[in-house]
Amino acid sequence: MHDFRIRQVHFVPVSVNGVAVLPRTWADTVNLPPRRRTARGAVPSTMRVLLDVRDPVVRGTFVYHCHIFDHEDGGMMATIRVE
Q: For the chain, does the N or the C end have fewer beta carbons within 10 angstroms?
């Protein structure tokens, strides 16, 4: 399981693993399920989000990451650039 966070920007989780998330509410952190096992091996969870970047002040580079330190240290961290 992963505690997924986007810093400084709120977002709406739209779907997790292709399944709609309802009700849709603003968040800055959500829990993602662990990877799924298939005949082809392990498949990581996926999530589609809508970012709230309507405010012109919301510009710059924002970090998203897993809150589990071992995962974060292992590379589960990246950035989103909003211009």
A: C
CATH number of the domain bearing residue 15? 2.60.40.420
Torsional sign, CA 36, 72, 80, 49: positive
End-to-end CA distance of the chain: 32
Q: How many domains does the chain have?
A: 1
Percentages helix, strand, coil for the chain (3-state, rounded to 5) are: 5, 50, 45
What is the reported pTM? Answer: 0.74
Q: Which domain holds residue 25?
A: 2-82
